[in-house]
Design goal:
The complex is a heterodimer of chains A (85) and B (616). In chain A, 16% of the residues lie in helices and 35% in strands. Chain A has 85 residues and is an alpha+beta fold. Chain A has a single domain (6-82), classed as Ferrous iron transport protein A (FeoA) (SH3 type barrels), CATH 2.30.30.90. Chain A is globular and about 30 Å long. The termini of chain A are close together. In chain A, 45% of the residues are buried. Chain B has helices spanning 17-25, 70-79, 101-113, 125-130, 137-144, 159-171, 186-200, 210-218, 223-241, 244-264, 269-286, 289-305, 307-321, 329-334, 339-345, 352-361, 371-381, 393-418, 440-474, 484-487, 489-501, 508-517, 523-535, 545-552, 555-566, 572-582, 586-612; strands at residues 6-11, 29-33, 40-47, 53-58, 91-97, 118-123, 133-135, 148-151, 201-204, 429-432. In chain B, strands 2-3-4-1-5-6-8 form a 7-stranded mixed beta sheet, sandwiched between helices. In chain B, α3 links the parallel β5 (91-97) and β6 (118-123). The longest helix of chain B is centred in the last third of the chain and has 35 residues, at 440-474. Classes of the chains: A alpha+beta (85), B alpha/beta (616). The interface between A and B is large, with 30 and 43 residues. β5 of chain A pairs antiparallel with β10 of chain B.
Chain lengths: 85, 616
């Protein structure tokens, strides 16, 4: 069973999900390039792990086999479908 | 003469590339710069199995051949044979992290596509195993079509096999020519990388990774910032406390040596040059080497354990309020050692405006060159008592000075990002690498390189400046009843400066030190030392500089001097590197002006407040 689509920044900490789409257009070219370098792509497993202590920003996200830090504003561009717990 | 073969070591950031480079070359390495850019060039020598020499170049870590930073651009240009100051490598050693194959193989595939003879080092296989990952290197070799060697760089495992395979490739007759650059769509490569990684993974046991558990604590919303504050506090207390014994020993030795040589020489100008020019000047600076080494020890260890990036993560939100990104935290933290490498480290900031703001505020971070000034003044004026809980008052004052620099930098960044450098507020995207124990040899190599840089500055700029200052301060010679610092050339120049700085409580001795301090901040100490040892000819020679100062300056003046140095006029090297990094004189000139205004205001406010409290 899978949940309904949401964006990466709305996902609860520890919840596993798969990327359904990424709105590359809202990202600056260098930001989009860096996200691709990190392995952000449709179908890739993601899991938010930690939040910055001040203002719950940035997010530490497990993507594939690595953990990256991105800001909430960029996480919003990533649509995900939560996986069953 | 045919140059020795060049092997480029390339890979993603955090693949353990530098550890592998250190393991292969040991201490036989040199750090320089690529011409025209300020990207560091690390080269080292190694030996092939047949005993012939080979040169290795450690390229900056990159995610791909489509650069998003100047570092990545250098990596691409070297590999395409387009980088000035570097010949095309004859072979390529690609380092990939065994536990992050999905990601690292994408860049590896791009590199293999270049067509250079390539060996893959499947690095950190021990950590992958710890994380429950079993890999098939032979399968990987088959999929990639190039040799794959399992390595654990920090334990030197696999190093001889790597050299053997590289040797075999170098022996094979083959024409080396530059590749064309990225030919495949990055998303396509990424998908292929994931397929290959899947094929190479034999088994995967889910385990609670150590890194994840540690992050649970170190990135905890409450514990995380507290731990960070504690780490920084311990770091600054240690800089003061641990260095006392070696610093005292060096100071005593310098004093003794200066006097011993002075006694052996005939009275006159030459003796004065040796004792008052060279020993009083450079000696007073070398004394501070212990502190600088301890500070760098902390920075290098924090960097190599992976904690530095966590600090950036914790600080990002606060930094964003100042118009900066968490990425600015590392360059700014490095500026505690020296603003020059700090400003150079801003190259990892993608957003050009964020980067400019970071460069402009970097000199406000208390660099190690200011430490001698702080230490001298604190030692002379602040009693070595405790304020309870084993916290020393001297260390506390030092902490406040560092804090003032940080607060000043954040406030300056807010103002700058809303005025002079409008339109920033960019991205924060970084990898959080696995935690690792730092390897002693890697830290020692780093410490050695930093110590050499400091000593070179102490040995050249400072020696040069001190000798010129000694000349200015010694001629013309004072007659009977005259004070040497009144009649000399330097005295007259200082008179002019003194008119400007007298309102903020600076005496003539300080005025005399301000100009040479531009060459390098630590020269201020040397300059004051020189002035006082010349005046002290007739007084007791046995007094230390601290004792002489304590008798001559008021507490208000001393505090104003400290406040001045928090925002201090920066050194020539900082201005030069800023000019280089911003491609012109506009920003360095702007930086000098605003820092002078800040320093003057801070010293003034401190002095007037202290005088109002009766400390004048």
């Amino acid at each position: 069973m899978t949940g309904t689509a949401t964006s990466l920044d709305q996902l609860k900490l520890g919840m596993r999900a798969r990327i359904s789409s990424i709105d590359w257009a809202v990202l600056a070219e260098s930001e989009a390039c860096r996200l691709r370098h990190f392995g952000f792509d449709e179908g890739v497993a993601v899991q938010p792990l930690h939040l910055g202590p001040f203002g719950r920003d940035p997010l530490a996200v497990r993507v594939g086999r690595m953990t990256v830090a991105i800001r909430r504003a960029h996480a919003r561009a990533v649509s995900v479908i939560p996986e069953a717990a | 003469m045919i140059p020795v073969p060049l092997i480029a070591v390339a890979g993603n950031p955090n693949a353990g590339k530098s550890a592998l480079f250190n393991a292969l070359t040991g201490a036989r390495q040199k750090v320089g710069n690529y011409p025209g850019v300020t990207v560091e060039r690390h080269v080292g020598k190694a030996t092939l199995p047949d005993g012939s020499p080979v040169e290795l170049v450690d390229l900056p870590g990159a995610y791909g051949l489509d650069p998003t930073s100047p570092d990545e651009a250098v990596t691409r240009d070297v590999l395409l044979g387009k980088q000035k100051g570097e010949r095309l490598p004859q072979a390529l050693l690609v380092v990939v992290d065994a536990s992050n194959l999905d990601n690292h193989l994408r860049f590896a595939l791009q590199l293999i596509d270049l067509g250079l003879p390539t060996v893959i080092a499947l690095n950190m296989v021990d950590l992958a195993k710890r994380d429950g990952l079993e890999l098939d290197a032979a399968k990987l070799e088959e999929e990639l079509g190039v040799p794959v060697i399992e390595t654990v760089a920090v334990r030197k495992r696999g190093m001889s096999e790597v050299m053997e395979r590289l040797h075999t490739l170098l022996l094979a007759p083959r024409t080396i020519r530059a590749g064309e650059g990225p030919s495949h769509d990055p998303l396509h490569l990424q998908r292929r990388a994931r397929e290959i990684a899947m094929a190479a993974i034999v088994s995967e046991t889910p385990v609670r990774r150590i890194t994840h558990r540690l992050d649970g604590l170190l990135l905890h919303p409450i514990a995380g910032p507290l731990i960070l504050a504690a780490v920084l506090f311990v770091m600054f207390q240690a800089v003061f406390a641990w260095s006392v014994v070696p610093a005292d020993a060096l100071e005593a030795a310098t004093l003794w040596l200066g006097q011993a040589i002075g006694n052996a020489l005939p009275e006159g100008v030459f003796r004065s040059l040796i004792v008052d020019g060279i020993f009083a000047g450079v000696g007073a600076v070398i004394v501070f080497l212990p502190q600088i080494l301890i500070l760098f020890l902390f920075i290098l260890v924090l960097e190599s354990t992976g904690y530095m990036v966590r600090a950036a993560f914790i600080m990002d939100r606060l930094m964003s309020h100042a118009g900066l990104s968490g990425r600015a935290f590392i360059p700014l933290l490095s500026s505690f050692a020296c603003a020059v490498p700090g400003i150079m480290a801003t190259r990892t900031i993608d957003d050009p405006k964020d980067r400019l703001t970071t460069i402009l505020v970097a000199p406000l971070m208390t660099c190690s060159a200011r430490l001698p000034v702080y230490t001298l003044i604190i030692g002379a004026f602040i009693p070595a008592t405790t304020v309870g809980l084993g916290i020393g008052l001297q260390g506390l004052v030092l902490f406040v000075l560092y804090l003032s620099g940080i607060v000043g930098a954040l406030l300056a960044a807010i103002v700058l990002s809303k005025t002079a450098v409008k339109g920033g507020g960019g991205a924060f995207m970084m990898e959080l690498p696995k935690y690792q124990l730092p390897r002693v040899a890697d830290v020692l190599i780093g410490l050695w390189q930093r110590a050499m840089i400091f000593l070179k500055r102490a040995g050249t700029i400072i020696l040069f400046t001190t000798i010129i200052l000694w000349g200015l301060a010694s001629f013309p010679q004072a007659g009977p009843g005259q004070k040497q610092s009144d009649v000399s050339i330097a005295g007259h120049v200082a008179d002019g400066i003194h008119t400007v700085v007298a309102p903020i409580g600076f005496n003539k001795d300080i005025s005399l030190a301000l100009l040479p301090a531009m060459a390098a901040r630590e020269v201020a100490v040397a300059a004051i030392g020189t002035v006082y040892s010349l005046d002290a000819e007739k007084e007791s020679n046995l007094q230390t500089l601290e004792q002489r100062l304590a008798g001559r300056w008021s507490l208000a003046t001393a505090l104003a001097f400290l406040a001045w140095f928090v925002f201090a006029p920066q050194c020539i090297s900082t201005i030069a590197v800023t000019r280089r990094e911003t491609n012109g004189w506009k920003w360095p000139l702007f930086m000098i002006s605003y820092l002078f205004v800040l320093a003057y205001a801070a010293a003034g406010i401190t002095y007037w407040t202290a005088v109002a409290f009766g400390l004048g």
